[in-house]
Amino acid sequence: MRLSLNDPRGRLMAVLTVALSLAVAGCGSISRPDVELARAQAPAHAVLDPFRFAANDEAAGRAFLSAWQVEREALGADGITALAVSGGGANGAYGAGVLVGWTQAGDRPVFDLVTGVSTGALISPFAFLGPTWDESLTAAYRDEDVSRLTSGGWGALSRPSLYSDRSLRALVGKYVDPALLRAIAAEHRRGRRLLVATTNLDAQATILWDMGAIAMAGQAPGQEATAVARFRNVLVASASIPGVFPPVMMQLDETGVGVAEMHVDGGVSTPFVLGPATLTLWTPEGIMRPRDLYVIINGEIEPRRSLTKGATLPILMRSFDTLSKSDLRAHLIAAVAFANRNDARLRYAAIPTALGADSLAFDLDSMRRLFEAGRVAGAEGAAFAEITPETASTPAP
To answer: Which residues are registered as beta bridge partners of 393?
Structure first.
């Protein structure tokens, strides 16, 4: 595999923005205050602040890690095994299958840290809780309700997206309940961490949500319903593909009527997360040193040759796919550098190009086929590959 740091994000996003703006001009929108009024109304301390931090905020990232280190020291933990699950829409069925197959192989680790982006955010609670939740994970990605996620299109005439988030919220609500939060809170007390990424469009920043902290807050008397609603809201936001599903408005005060931030799919700002972006050059020591790092990529990473049709939509879609793969490879390079500097192993799983994956193919047949392919690869120990400094710059045969 040849990895390249060449990222055409700026050039392509300009083209995409113009094209999409022309396509939906005059359509449904969300009413928001002007910039100055929003600044004036924003609370000094948002009700959400205890549960999140921006990935580009170095001080906040170090504070999170320092508090975690103190807790791990008290618990006698040593070394970190981490799993990052990427975005990918319907392709999340493959990653879910890999986890279930990994359980069947008998060597699935207990992860100290699990992170999720977009569809990876939906997978991450089950990946975090471990094999005893595989049945729920399997059900979620083989659920007939999945096929309804992209039903009733052309809603951009009345809302800022093609589809409503009603079906997505219903699906998340079916599997995220008080029992799941209680289980996550119990693992959080054991010194493990679950993070989910969203993109704050107002700040143009990746926001990392401490889902275990949200679950813990729900264990206080009278706070269960609030925590469940907040947990669901973050997952829906992380999976809200811009233009496909509407953004999620995150209220900053207790009243629920003041200024709100606009959050969308975490994959807009990062394909996966292994740590705060500002700490890429961080070299942890002692109990915080990384040991084994795994990345499940819910998509293809290798180029797939295809003759691109000379029309606007095929050109845009092919360009976006090329951009996504380039971005993934660049992030893997950074992750490999981090792993090598800290004497850790990094392994990744990605969808083979032969499967012909499509991130918007939410039909049951496609998703069940991907799930089964992932399960078989996981069970046979064939899902993960390791990137070394040599293979990172050497073309695949």
So the answer is: 2
| Cα separation, 275 vs 337, whole angstroms | 13
Contact 89, 351 (CB under 8 A): no
DSSP class per residue in 45-61: S-TTGGGEEETT-HHHH
Q: pTM, whole model, 2 decimals?
A: 0.87
273 near 207, Cβ under 8 Å?
no
Per-residue model confidence as pLDDT tens digits over 103-148:
999 999 999 999 999 999 999 999 999 999 999 999 999 888 887 7
Q: Which residues contact 57 (CB under 8 A, 6 or more apart)?
A: 276, 278
Q: What gap in Å lies between CA 354 and CA 55, rounded to an integer? A: 35
Looking at per-residue pLDDT, the higher value among 380 and 7 belongs to: 380
Q: Indicate the Cα dihedral angle 293, 196, 317, 295, nearest 10°.
A: 10
Residue 172's region, left for phi above 0, alpha for psi from -120 to 50, else beta, is alpha
The amino acid at 335: A
Q: Are 102 and 134 spatial neighbours (Cβ–Cβ below 8 Å)?
A: no
* Tens-place pLDDT, residues 274-297: 877 766 677 888 899 999 999 999
Separation in Å, CA 335 to CA 98, 197, 293: 21, 17, 9
